[in-house]
Amino acid sequence: MMHNPSKVRQKIMKKWIMGLRSCSSSHENLSLSERRWIIKLSADLALASVRNGSRRWSRAIIEEASRNPDNKGLIQRMLGSGCDYRSPCLIPREGRSDGNGAGHVTKSMWVATSSKKIVKRCRRARRSNGRAPRRNEAASIAKRLVKKRTQLLKDFVPGGQDMDDVSLIEETLDYIVWLRAQVDVMRALAHSLPATTSI
Amino acid sequence: MGTPYQHQLQKPEEMMDAAHPLPQPNADSFMALLELPPSEAMELLLPSGSSAPGKPFIHSLVKDEVAADSDCSNPNPLRSRPSAVLGGDAAAEAAAPGCKRKEADRKGKGSAKKKKGDCTPEGQVLPYVHVRARRGQATDSHSLAERARREKINARMKLLQELVPGCNKISGTALVLDEIINHVQSLQRQVEVLSMKLAAVNSWIDFDIDGLIYPGHGAVMDGNFVNMLMPTICLPELQLSGNNEEHFQQWPLDSIHQPVLPKGESHSIYTPEVSPLSSNSSAD
Q1: Rg, C-alpha atoms of chain A
Q2: Which of A98, A154, B188, B198 has most Cβ atoms within 10 angstroms of its Cβ?
């Protein structure tokens, strides 16, 4: 998952600072919340780009950021116009890269996952016909609880909405590890900068 | 039968592209794969010589016409190897869904009982275990696939439990998921808080970096800034490289309750700035 944590963090830090630098021209006039937005966005993009799109959550971060037109400039500067995550081996088999990177990836993955859902629903319907009523209450309650939490987890993990359970857990695993790296990087910078405050 | 399994096929393909380029059976050859004797099928699915014969994996595989009960000695108990599954052995992982699917299909045609053991009449030792259907459990293909899926999920959940602090003692999926969600939430919240702290830094040197590199550009630049700049940029890298293991492992204990100052930080001029921040936020 993460073979060399310190190297990874250095990469994230470098990419992040690159992104921040690219915004430096307009910085005198930005409000606090705008600055915060840029700092967080560039940190997220740095994380996603170092992860290089080989995970659904990293692609989802970039996709979600791309939906806001205000972010386009930063995304292009940080990830380049030929985004890393769009490299051929990372695009799902159904889709081809046709220049419409983020949108195309989304569409083909949506097609893949929605057909998965339909099949799942059919299987469930088929199976539930024969379910004996002897299933105890506790099991169904437990199932419901787990389902609710799974849905919650899907909300927190980027790109989690269309995942099945197995991928969700794998993505969460990966996401947690790399998210920790991002926090480490941000904390290191926050602690080393002279923190005179702006009021 | 085609659609869900095709998607499963593609996922291990994704993992495998990183490790081994391998000719993957597509939908057409998949049916042909079913006709092949298992040993040849395994050769197709596994890259040659890459999987250790001794490694057991969770597998349901039936060999109606191949495996004989008497030949199979030493039945392996059902074992899960989550670290192997998730780690480097992408090839075997790719083999797993493929074989499972193949078996599930055969199930429909063949006998209801499955053979246990890991040898074929040819005497080859196959790198996966067969699962005996337990007493009272359904053996149709759906339940089989479902059970394999559930075992996969449980293996992953165990890994997650190890990763997230405090999850080891908890039993019960719902509570473990609670902890995981809390952990992810807290990490994301830390990112927010840190970006707020950084945004509040007045002398935002990094933003003015170009002004320093190309002197004469920026606003109020004097020698002090330059002096402060270099250690600023070098420092994070030093801190990151120096403390990686310990810092990383402090996660379970400290990060949740309080921010951890990086070790070895000698010249900490960091001062808490909570109050100006809170009064500032309302202004935006």
Answers
A1: 21
A2: B198
**B87, A170 Cβ separation under 8 angstroms:** no
A-B C-beta contacts closer than 8 Å = 223
- Classify residue A86: in a domain, yes or no: yes
Predicted confidence (pLDDT) per residue in B137-190, tens digit: 777 888 899 899 989 988 998 888 888 888 888 888 889 999 999 999 999 999
Contact A19, A78 (CB under 8 A): yes
Residue A173 structural domain: 5-93+168-192
A contact test, residue of B9, B93, B194 with most A CBs within 10 A: B194
Residue A137: pLDDT band by 50, 70, 90 thresholds? Answer: confident
What is the DSSP track for B17-39? HHH-------HHHHHHHHHS-HH
Of A196, A122, A5, which Cα lies nearest the Cα of B200?
A: A196
Q: Which residues, given as ranges, of chain B have pLDDT below 50?
A: 1-27, 29-31, 33-39, 41-42, 45-100, 102-120, 206-250, 252-284
Residue A66 pLDDT more than 60?
yes
Whether residues A198 and B240 touch (CB distance < 8 A) is answered with no
Partner B, chain A 122-181, Cβ-Cβ below 8 Å = 123, 127, 142, 145-146, 149-150, 152-153, 156-157, 165-167, 169-170, 172-173, 175-177, 179-180
Asked if A27 has any chain B CB less than 8 Å from its own CB, the reply is: yes
Q: DSSP character for B252?
A: I
Q: Round to whole Å and give the CA distance between B37 and B72.
A: 17
Q: Which residue has the tokens 């040849």?
A: B40
Q: Is residue A180 part of a domain?
A: yes
Q: How many residues are present in chain B?
A: 284
Phi, psi of B125 (to 5 degrees): -95, 115
pTM confidence score: 0.52
Which two tokens mark B278? 């809170």
Q: Does some domain include residue A60?
A: yes
**Is the per-residue pLDDT at A112 higher than 70?**
no
User: What's the pLDDT score for residue A130?
Assistant: 54
B195 with A186: Cβ contact below 8 A: yes
| Sign of the dihedral through C-alpha A22, A25, A28, A33 | negative
**How many domains, chain A?**
1
ipTM rounded to 2 decimals: 0.74
The answer to whether residue A81 is domain-embedded is yes
